Amino acid sequence: MTGAAGFLGSYLCEALVAKGAKVTALDNFTIGSTSNLEPFKNEMQIVNCDITKNEIRSYIEGSQIVFHLAAVANPRSCREDFDLAFKINVEGTKNVLDASRDGLRVIFLSAAAAYGNPSYIPIDEKHPLNGRDPYAISKIMAEYLCTNYYQNCGVPVVIVRNFSTFGPRQTPSYIIPTLITQALQQKRLEIWNPKPTRDFMYIDNTIDALLRIAESEELIGDVINIGSGEEVHIGALTEKISQMFGGLPIVNLNKDVVGSERLVCDNTKLKKVTGWKLIVPFEDGLQRTCSWFKQASLGQ
Ligand SMILES: NC(=O)c1ccc[n+]([C@@H]2O[C@H](COP(=O)([O-])OP(=O)(O)OC[C@H]3O[C@@H](n4cnc5c(N)ncnc54)[C@H](O)[C@@H]3O)[C@@H](O)[C@H]2O)c1
User: Fold this and answer.
1) 76-116 tens-digit pLDDT
2) CA 163 / ligand 1 centre spacing (Å)
3) pLDDT digits over 193-252, tens only?
4) Which of 32, 41, 227, 263 could make an SS bond with 6 (beta carbons 3.0 to 4.6 A apart)?
5) Pocket of ligand 1 (CB under 6 A)
6) Which residue's CA lies nearest to atom 30 of ligand 1?
7) 257 alpha carbon to ligand 1 midpoint, in Å?
8) Domain segments of the chain as ranges
9) Domain 7-168+200-231+262-280 = CATH 3.30.1340.30
10) How close is the Cα of 127 to the center of ligand 1, in Å?
């Protein structure tokens, strides 16, 4: 797995180890942390490795499946340094695909951001890719590489367009950890704009979907969405977090919307092909996440 020490990667490693899989966890630890892998570190191989370097081949060789998660995954970081985002998200993906030519299955983590501002809701896999910001562009380019390697080199690739996953341990710069951290530290919440919508899904649901996707022969060479199908306004999310902390004040900065205005997943294909269904509903997941961040802040 590339990006194994990150948010999604560390949960996926844990789930694979629990299933008895032999896991090699690759990460360059720029964002991800060894502490994310600590509880199960002795049950897998952990390697400090950069996906833009050729050494990755030796670690991928002999595997059955590559989960390719390593990326500059934060859209803001991609805007700040598009050169780095291009190098890791696009060239890094090419390097992983080059290393995977021997029939090895590659599960590539793309993002709903690739859809841009949608022309219809909910968004199914046939929706055109309209993403305009550097993060979305890098994911679209990487997707084209995946399709090309599947069609021309026989690499069995599955492209996964993930919507917004959240949960304990998520990197602080995303909206849910940001709001929870504000609640804990500043006792008030600050949002750019309440209007955009996102499809937020608790981590356990995403990991279950990824494991099912990896086991499906039918999805090879195909694209699949992961998301809950529930549309949540940023304003409503903020209100819920405020309530979970006893009703904290909310400051609306009324800034322009950055990125897509609405993102809601049509998960019909995921349900139909893999039998996936939601395990942890949004509000339960949010409650668990708030509790985890509260506990973590007490431990500091
Ligand atoms: N979290 C979400 O809601 C979400 C939504 C859509 C898509 N995705 C995609 O899923 C994947 C994982 O996302 P995440 O939220 O866990 O992000 P994350 O930032 O927590 O994890 C990414 C990991 O990649 C590692 N990495 C970065 N550059 C690397 C390099 N050159 N070599 C090796 N490792 C490198 C980082 O250290 C980090 O551990 C990403 O590809 C992301 O674009 C995530």
Assistant:
1) 999 999 999 999 999 999 999 999 987 899 999 999 999 99
2) 13
3) 999 999 999 999 999 999 999 999 999 999 999 999 999 999 999 999 999 999 999 999
4) 32
5) 2-3, 5-9, 27-32, 50-52, 69-71, 73, 88, 92, 109, 111, 162, 164-165, 171
6) 50
7) 23
8) 7-168+200-231+262-280
9) no
10) 24
pTM above 0.70, yes or no: yes
Residue written as token pair 């859209």: 75
Span from the CA of 248 to the centroid of ligand 1 (angstroms): 31
